[in-house]
Specification:
hydrolase; Rossmann fold; alpha/beta; 225 residues
């Protein structure tokens, strides 16, 4: 049994576009659930999504608990050993209150990768595999959220490149969610049920393509690198 931890924000939580954090798609319709079904037996998928979660910022309005970095380590220890950590964050870092350029949002993701490796919560105390997923770009029309995300639409279109550069530099896996799905027009930054299906199925293929048989036979010092 391999364990995959899906660590993200409202689009991992399954928030319905235009709704509140309490309005969620059913477990099997959210992308981690779709991915689990596509992976089949032998895979344990842990869904850890929180609406408003950032990479490394304590939100002065929504609360310090929105800081992904402070929750990641206890979360990893709770579910260890973990074979793969999928990180899909970044949208909330683009809120106007944080004044973050895309390059620094990517640096926040890099901090999470470093924290995972420092903890080494993989099998036998090794590093797990890590995958950075860039969220699909926001739509130009984000309804009543325009003031909160002022200027974020253009920044969101640059996240994929910055995340890919960060992933390459840290030698972790990367996937651009914008290549398979888009945000829903109801609010412009959440994905709908069809997008969850598209993303979950695509990520299942990415997970299976990692090459687990080769990792199993590799020397311990090289596993998860």
């Amino acid at each position: 049994m391999r364990t995959v931890l899906c660590f993200g924000d409202s689009n991992t939580h399954g928030q319905i576009p235009g709704g509140t954090p309490l309005d969620r798609y059913p477990v099997h319709e959210r992308w981690p659930g779709v991915m689990k079904a596509a992976l089949g037996d032998g895979w344990h998928v842990v869904e850890e999504g929180l609406s408003g979660r950032t990479t490394v910022h304590s939100d002065p309005i929504e609360g310090a608990h929105k800081n992904g970095r402070t929750y990641l380590k206890p979360c990893l220890q709770s579910h260890a050993p973990v074979d793969l950590v999928i990180l899909m964050l970044g949208t909330n870092d683009l809120k106007a209150r944080f004044h973050m350029p895309p390059s620094e949002v990517a640096m926040g993701m890099g901090c999470l990768v470093h924290d995972i490796r420092e903890l080494a919560p993989g099998p036998n105390g090794h590093d797990p595999e890590i995958m950075i997923v860039s969220p699909p770009p926001m739509l130009d029309d984000i309804k009543e959220w325009e003031a909160i995300f002022y200027g974020a639409q253009a920044k969101s279109r640059k996240l994929a490149l910055e995340f890919e550069v960060m992933a390459d530099s840290l030698e972790v896996h990367f996937f651009d969610a914008g290549t398979v799905c888009r945000c829903a027009p109801q609010d412009g930054f959440h994905i709908d049920g069809e997008a969850h299906r598209q993303l979950g199925e695509a990520l299942a293929m990415e997970v299976l393509s990692i090459g687990w048989a080769e990792l199993q036979s590799a020397p311990k010092s090289f596993k998860g690198r």
